[in-house]
Amino acid sequence: MKVLVTGFGPYGGYSENPSGEAVGLLPEVAAKELPGLELVTAVLPVSFRRAREELLGLLDSERPDAYVGVGLGPGAAHLRIERVAVNLADARTPDEDGEQPVDEPIDPEGPAAYFSTLPVKAIVRRLREEGIPAALSYSAGTFLCNYVMYLGLHHSSRRGYPLRAGFVHVPLSHRQAASLGRDWSGIPPSMSVETVVRGLLVVLRVAVERFEAGDERVTV
Ligand code: PCA
């Protein structure tokens, strides 16, 4: 099974992005722990135009069986397994190229939303069993993370590949939380990048198990 996993680079006030850091560490760990998996990784820029070009280019050149997007969700206290991507780009702040779409559809011809086609509940269950805090989430926002999740699912629906696609939001890293926090009450929740990497391995393991078992069910 071939899986594309993408993280994001720095953006806005975040000079580091733990999603990109974790995705960068993933190939070495996955080679040991999931030897049968063909893994392709990339760190996307936080730019609507360039992220779209890179992601669609990778989906077409690599033709992965599954796509897992990963991004930073500042304020998240656990891994958020996203369930829905909406056809909306509504940026509160400009992207890294200064573009700021407001109230724009991602594709005027596309459906209002797509559900993740990863086995999201099985993933959450397995993460918790392995001691990693995780929960389902019903909004990936309206910025780049929702954008790449929608694009992945839209591509899957239109072209037939990847067969499965979904998205994981990760908390700030401990280092970020330590430097961003102002006082006792102002420390945001955080997770170590190592735990995020372990969590992504679990996501991949569950996806591979389902795929290899020919299990067509989604969600459960
Ligand atoms: N998080 C942002 C964009 C890039 C990232 O890592 C988001 O949640 O949309």
Radius of gyration: 16 Å
Which fold name corresponds to the CATH topology? Aminopeptidase
Largest sheet: 6 strands, mixed
The main sheet orders its strands as 2-1-3-8-4-7
Tell me the number of helical segments per DSSP (H or I, 4 or more residues long): 6
Q: Supply the helix-strand structural class.
A: alpha/beta
Helicity level: 25-40%
Distance between the termini: 20 Å
CATH top level label: Alpha Beta
Shape: globular
Identify the CATH homologous superfamily.
Answer: Peptidase C15, pyroglutamyl peptidase I-like
Brief digest:
38% of the residues lie in helices and 19% in strands. It is built from six helices and eight strands.
Tags for this model:
220 residues, alpha/beta, Aminopeptidase, 6-stranded mixed β-sheet, 6 helices, 38% helix, globular, binds pyroglutamic acid
Compile the SSE list and pairings:
Blueprint: E1 2-8, H1 18-33, E2 38-44, H2 48-62, E3 66-72, E4 79-82, E5 84-86, E6 113-115, H3 120-129, E7 134-137, H4 144-159, E8 164-170, H5 174-180, H6 193-212
Helix pairs in contact: 1-6, 2-4, 3-6
This protein binds pyroglutamic acid (PCA).
Describe this structure in words.
This protein has one domain: Peptidase C15, pyroglutamyl peptidase I-like (Aminopeptidase). 38% of the residues lie in helices and 19% in strands. It has 6 helices and 8 strands. Strands 2-1-3-8-4-7 form a 6-stranded mixed beta sheet, sandwiched between helices. Strands 5-6 form a two-stranded antiparallel sheet. α1 links the parallel β1 (2-8) and β2. α1 (18-33) crosses α6, α2 (48-62) packs parallel to α4 and α3 packs across α6. It is globular. The relative contact order is 0.22. The mean pLDDT is 95. The chain binds pyroglutamic acid.
